[in-house]
Amino acid sequence: MTLRFDLERHHHLAGAIHARAWLTMREQFGLAPNTLDAYARAVDSYLAFIEPRVHDCEASTQSDVAGWINESRARGLANSTLIQRVTALRLFFEYLVEEGLRPGNPVSRGGAFRCCGTTVFRTAGPIRRMHKLPWIPTDEEWERLLRATSEDSIRDRAMLALAYDGALRREELCSIMVSDFDFARKLLTIRAETTKNRSGKVVPYSLATSALLGRYLNRRRTMRCEPDAVFLSESPRNRMMPITSYTWTKVVERMALRSEIPHLTTHTMRHLRLTDLARAGLDMHHIATLAGHRVLQSTLIYIHLSARDLTDALARTMGSLAAPRHPSLGPEE
């Protein structure tokens, strides 16, 4: 079986038999390719850290894990990335314990409940999660982006529009097939195998996006290419091959540079679309369906970004609070 994780990039995995066996097992269980690669990076990073100290993971201790976490934090890893890496390492150690290769797991499970008599405590994990609101552009920044991309290829503009309308993740956008469209109803089916949580969904797109897609597909019909992949590479090396997530990331990076919006990423269109829907007052359950969220807690981020609930609540209560709390103007002096 061909491994999806790159042993040339993660070269410490080459000599780690148990790590490769665990990653291969996760792949066979259907782990998403991007998640598999992230797990490979995490284990490879840990193996690189412990190499001068111990010979293998079977002899690792909590002190080794703590040192690796501190070293990763010192290198400036984002909080979410660090949590993902710690999770991957914990799952790997669980595998070693289940296989009888070590006595216990040196990575504690955060959020588990511990009982002491009649009292229940919530245990802390090795990394405290920081819940940051995602960045979204202002109206002026978005208009600047549209102006900067007005002369871009019809493919890039169609992808930008569709990414916004459908609140699509990068992999979902790049994996679209012609057969996924219902052009008459302006609906797009996102296949389960392309989504983060392996749940399919159907999303609408606008009349303006439909016009961009129509122009792009008319041009695409003149090309000799794969019959079903919609968005194709325009580079000389991979011309007419399906566009990759890496290529789309580079396209958006160039858009960000030209429009002078440094925080723009492939995920920005998704964040902005969901926030706009929250601002418009769409029901949170409908927003969650469009986003493909399994739990509403994930959708609440966009309610916070829109400040919809806070604004409505303040509007209802400010009148009654103002009179007793504000000082009187009194007579003019």
UniProtKB/TrEMBL annotation:
Residues 132-315 form the Tyr recombinase domain. It comes from the Bacteria. GO terms for biological process: chromosome segregation; DNA integration; DNA recombination. It holds the Pfam family Phage_int_SAM_1. Keywords: Chromosome partition, DNA integration, DNA recombination, DNA-binding. Signal peptide: none annotated. InterPro entries: CB (IPR044068), DNA_brk_join_enz (IPR011010), Integrase-like_cat_sf (IPR013762), Integrase_catalytic (IPR002104), Integrase_recombinase_N (IPR010998), Integrase_SAM-like_N (IPR004107), Tyrosine_recombinase_XerCD (IPR050090). The keyword Endoplasmic reticulum does not apply. One of its GO terms (molecular function) is DNA binding. This is Site-specific recombinase XerD. It comes from Edaphobacter modestus.
